[in-house]
Amino acid sequence: MLNLLNRLPPGATRGVERLLKSIPPVRSYIEKQYDSMMADLVEELHPYGRDHKVYARLPKEGVAREEILREMEEFLAAEQDRWAKGYASGAVYSGDPAHIDFLNRVYALNSQSNPLHADLWPSAIKFESEMVAMTARMLGADQTADEIVGTVSSGGTESILLAIKTYRDRARAERGVKRPQMIVPTTAHVAFEKAAHYFGVKLVRIPVGPDYRADVEATRKAINKRTIAIVGSAPTFPHGVIDPIYELSELARERGIGFHTDACLGGFVLPWAEKLGYPVPPFDFRLPGVTSMSADTHKYGYAAKGTSVVLYRGKELRRYQYYTATDWPGGLYFSPTLAGSRPGGLSAAGWAALVSMGEEGYMEATARILAAGRFIRAGIQRIPELTVLGDPLWVIAFGSRTLNIYNVMEQMSRRGWSLNGLDRPPAVHLAVTLRHTQPGVAQRFLEDLQDAVDYVKAHPDESTGMAPVYGMASSMPLRGLVGDILIRYVDMIYSVPEG
Ligand SMILES: Cc1ncc(COP(=O)(O)O)c(C=O)c1O
Fold first, then answer.
1. CA 158 to ligand 1: nearest atom
2. Relative orientation angle of helices 467-475 and 24-45, to the nearest 10 degrees
3. What is the spatial distance between Cα 429 and Cα 418, in angstroms, rounded to a whole number?
4. Confidence (pTM)
5. Which of 89, 157, 161 maximizes ligand 1 atoms within 8 Å of its Cβ, making it the mutation to test the pocket?
6. Binding site membership of 262 for ligand 1 (Cβ less than 6 Å)
7. The CATH number of the domain where 315 resides is what?
8. Per-residue pLDDT tens for 385-436?
9. CA of 34 to the centre of ligand 1 (A)
10. Does residue 126 form part of some domain?
């Protein structure tokens, strides 16, 4: 039955799901399965429900500031060790205490600033315009005759949403495209799917080859009159590999279509990796077909969380991103991005991160990260039960032909690690950050991984924590049921525990 369902396209399985859920005993069985999966996770999501005051309504009298700060310091002490000692994949990209202190001071100085009010905070305008200019130059703006422009956004997802909205609006205005579609490799970040969903763009998914890079021929075949943009990643989130950006962007150029390089993850690493002599295929504005890019300052730009840069080839294209209102009783209004008011303190911290790191700082950080990536990748390759997927530099995905990789991930969690679970194929990845370049961290990762593999070999049927959820997601043809579980999980995030 499952095999048969697996062969059905997602649309067809939806009907089967509806049918199954309409049968009361099946429905109640499914609900019970959900409940038992969720029970394990409640504790993990709301650990402070037990021994801390829960505020389900406003306190009658305000709580003393000192008390609030004391409680926050307690949370910090409980949570900091894991990421600070390098147990997390991605998440905190610098984590250096002196760097954090510096960014905190910058934020404190600018905490009231809002770029929406350019007259009050011209400093925010300086910070944002210079962040864009510095990022553009780093990504090839100096080596093309075209002007590369952009805006600051709140993160990778917003940069991607904005780029897709821009292409949709341009195609509508200039080519009369009413039912837009975009071509996106299956491994591109899910933010493109979100953009398609939000902006009514049809998503055409392109498979990746055995090297996990986008299939150029399939892309060529998928282009039609309604195509507004093609997407490639440098590198991809799941497997850390760089799509054939030159080939894909040339296809786009030949047809006069937009091409977006998603360098959210690699924008602040690859330019320096290339200078350090690593094999980095061209991916930025030096390629004439690349018409937009996203690069996240809040990842390997080492800024505080909450900023990214989206770039365009030319002001004409960028204009489709803007929103202006000229007949609103609230006055003349414009906003370059999705939000209205925005945290100027974060733009200040983004600017300060870039300026304080400088080219030398990024070069040195990249050298350390890539050396740690090489060491970790080689160590994983020495574990016979594991296989590294693709040819990654520092975001290293691995799976197993003999073991349940999600059980390995769970065993790593038991040893303190927070890794990313992947699907299709089942795998796990570690995004190496500066935290993993601290003495002994990479070695500890490999030792714990060997231990986890040995444990799973000895206990192949033990599946706890997130392992069954990932296992179910990867083997379950009825994706709507998996979606139900995710919705319950999000509901759980916003449920206040009983005080
Ligand atoms: C390649 C890529 N694109 C986009 C994103 C989305 O970024 P954010 O989580 O900042 O919205 C990520 C996040 O990891 C990413 O790796």
1. 11
2. 140
3. 10
4. 0.94
5. 157
6. yes
7. 3.40.640.10
8. 999 999 999 999 999 999 999 999 999 999 999 999 999 999 999 999 999 9
9. 29
10. yes
